[in-house]
Here is the input.
Amino acid sequence: MAVLDRLALSFLHRMDAEQAHRLTIRALKCGFGPKSRLSDDPRLAVEILGKRFSNPIGLAAGFDKNAEVMGPMAATGLGFVEVGSITPRPQPGNPRPRIFRLPADQAVINRLGFNNEGVAAAQACLAAFRAKDRNTIVGVNLGKNKTSEDAAADYAAGAKALAPFADYLVINVSSPNTPGLRALQDPAELRALVQAVEAASKEAGASPPILVKIAPDLEQADLEAIAGLALEPGIAGLIVSNTTIARPDSLRETERAAETGGLSGKPLFQPSTEVLKTVYRLTAGKKPLIGVGGISSGADAYAKIRAGASLVQLYTGLIYHGPVLVVRMRRDLAACLERDGFTSIAEATGADAR
Ligand SMILES: Cc1cc2nc3c(=O)[nH]c(=O)nc-3n(C[C@H](O)[C@H](O)[C@H](O)COP(=O)(O)O)c2cc1C
Here is the structure.
């Protein structure tokens, strides 16, 4: 890592995690992000969801909650960015502090609770962005307001406003910080949400593919039910996974580990990759999967791909390594494919799950 990048990271890590994040967003908006001018190795290209991704590495939801820095983040060399989670009405989220770094574990615990500026603000940002950039692949991740009683109406409101700007939509039913949200992973509930989002998108004159983002804490029976549902036409793919409410015994930051919230980063890698592999097997590779959880290197991304992912995403890895990580990951991922004799990501997808 270049000296300047190391300095910037150590400066940010001396601040409260949320303050550091706000400063990072501001710096990115002012054009201070790194820019990758390298073109992608053609072997990294992925064609799914009706799009051509020039590389499979994407930004996970939660970093750009209000769709403010899609361009600067794509410029770091990512193949796509996902914004959100966005709720219909703006909401402040939980009281602070609500993001905790666990440096010895290369992990984070957050209990933000969908703090965001709401659909109208995101719509304005996305419309302005689309007026100048049609190429960057942008996924829009939808959530529900904490106090809303009608989840389907919330996801539909998000879809109606944002589908015209989205390359794909995500129904996020797996964040641990909104009471009752994860119960929406129940197949009957989920089917109703997918239908509501589909109908609302159509009403808005758009029909982006709909993905569902699931938790890593689901039991085998739940995974079987969701995989069954995912094989129905309404769901284009699954994102595996969100943060975990589990606290693996391996955690070294035992005091911080006691904080309530979702755990992300390195300790999530193995459990989320296991779930990914299970879902790949259950869906027989018939629907694209996006692998997320604990990725911080090209080798990690490659392991997710071999476990069944067509695309991958990361967030916590960027907190510990900075955005320069992306260029290194692209190079190392191409080297992994080369080493194992694969000529494309598609060939490697699911190699460990068959
Ligand atoms: C601070 C923070 C905020 C997050 N907010 C969201 C969110 O709003 N919606 C969502 O679907 N996932 C959210 N996530 C989960 C990430 O998208 C990702 O699924 C998870 O962190 C695992 O990936 P990672 O280990 O690379 O961070 C958030 C994660 C973090 C660390």
About this structure: Residues 60-62, 65, 84-85, 99, 108, 110, 112, 114, 141, 172, 175, 213, 242-243, 264-265, 268, 292-295, 314-317 surround flavin mononucleotide (CB under 6 Å). Residues 203 and 354 are 40 Å apart (CA to CA). Residues 187-203 form the longest helix (17 residues).
